[in-house]
Amino acid sequence: MIELRGITKRFGAHTVLDALELGFASGAVTAVLGPNGAGKTTLLKSVLGLVRPDSGSVRIDGAPTDDAGVYRHRIGYMPQLPNFPPHMTGRELAAMLDDLRDFDGPADEELVDAFGLRTELDRPFRTLSGGTRQKVNAALAFRYRTPVLILDEPTAGLDPLASLALKDKVRKSRDEGRTVLVTSHNLGDLEAIADAVVFLHEGRVRFEGSLTELLARTGRASLEQAIATLMRGPAGAADADGSARLPRPHPHMEVVR
Amino acid sequence: MRTVYKVLTHQLRDLSRSRAIGGYAACLLLATWGLVHFGGGTERALPSLATLVVLIVPLVSLLVTTSFVYHGGDFIELLLSHPIGRRPLFAGIYTGLTLPLAGAFLLGVLLPITVGGGLASHGREVALLALAGTLLTTVFTSLGLLVSLRVVEPARGMGLALLIWLVLAVLYDGAVLLAAYRWASHPLETPMLVAMAFNPVDLARVLVIMALDASAMMGYTGAVFQDFFGGATGVATAVTCLTLWTAVPALLALHTFRRKDF
Lengths: 257, 262
Known about the structure:
The structure holds two protein chains of two kinds. Chain A has helices at residues 40-48, 90-100, 110-114, 130-142, 160-175, 187-193, 211-218, 223-231; strands at residues 2-11, 14-24, 28-33, 55-60, 63-64, 75-78, 148-152, 179-183, 196-201, 204-210. By secondary structure, chain A is of the alpha/beta class. Chain A has a six-stranded mixed beta sheet, sandwiched between helices. In chain A, a hairpin with a 2-residue loop joins strand 4 (55-60) and strand 5. In chain A, helix 7 packs across helix 8. The two termini of chain A are 13 Å apart. Mean pLDDT of chain A is 86; it is low at 235-257. By secondary structure, chain B is mainly α. Chain B starts with a helix and ends with a helix. The chains are: A alpha/beta, B mainly alpha. Chains A and B meet through helix 2 of A and helix 1 and helix 4 of B.
């Protein structure tokens, strides 16, 4: 369970996140969506402590985040750009992260096998293609069996088979009771895995609810159409009664109070 | 401390494969060997070597450090997404940069001198040259980290780093000389000493001048500093000032790093 209480973040005069109150429940995949610059990545990075909010707090399973970053033992993160040190191999990087995390296993290497990465892990990153680096990126995020997973554009650059394997892994993690936050511009992929949707616009939550609820409220048949409706603004079907513009807990979520 | 050590060892392993550090050591080695071999021995090579060191060491330290931060920003972000505090990570990065840079400098300068027998005959002078180069490495690593953490855009950051080098290593002494010429009829010792404390390159020059008695070759401010202090007091003062030049930018860089958004 992740709770965000009054998270505000400004970059200069621009308010990227505006007093966000959100809860992400365990055992659910939540898609964080919004137009470019809506604050999706800033929101994910605020949970990770990579971005320092100007005000508000983040709690993971009831415990506040700390400066020493100990709470990040509970988080697996897949960043958007897998820019690893070019001289290092995947195996060396995994060993380094194991060391830094005081991790003595057993590691989750299901994705390593699913992606056929065993031999690639012994090659320096500079010799790997972008897609293979992204596979290593995904495998590292799941490696530590963390209760929270944060995935930023996880399927970007992956071939269809790898994308399917990753989505299967996300669903499996959800079924194991983990909290999964994911953002992506590939709405088809998100529709296949998301239980819940948070739609951000201009730093505020415009919709928070289950995928089914979103489709019902917008009267659309697909996530892509529903999001397009939300992005068109006040004239959209979702805003007919104004309800979709308010943060609403969905059935899988506990309300943060 | 355990986290600092872990970050440091991993960074040392990675940087040991870097061509920049290896190339730096090789260039210094070649230059020192050339100066000692063709310049008529260690004693005659030391003034030229000192001039080379106070120009090259700041430049390479700034470039390697800013390049590391700008090219490795995503990797720093990846590390910070794991359970590592920002303070130990910064300490690991800082020491992981200064140790290979200082090691490359010491190897490149000391090896040819030692092989040529200069260490035995001019131990004190060589030791002060090594100390000056090592302190310049720590100072300009601090300045490089401060610039690259505060300036987000790589082109502007690298440009600012080069400007800092140009001002401190080249233009500053010229400005001091011009000022001395302009106010030649006034007592200038105290203003010159204050001016020197504001330039780590001049402070490093002084360390070497103390040993070489070559103040006339090493800039006007260096000559003033030698006359005023001389001996151990001058060395201690220069080392203290250089330590402050290392610590203050490093602490400011740490302050920035702890609050920076990645």
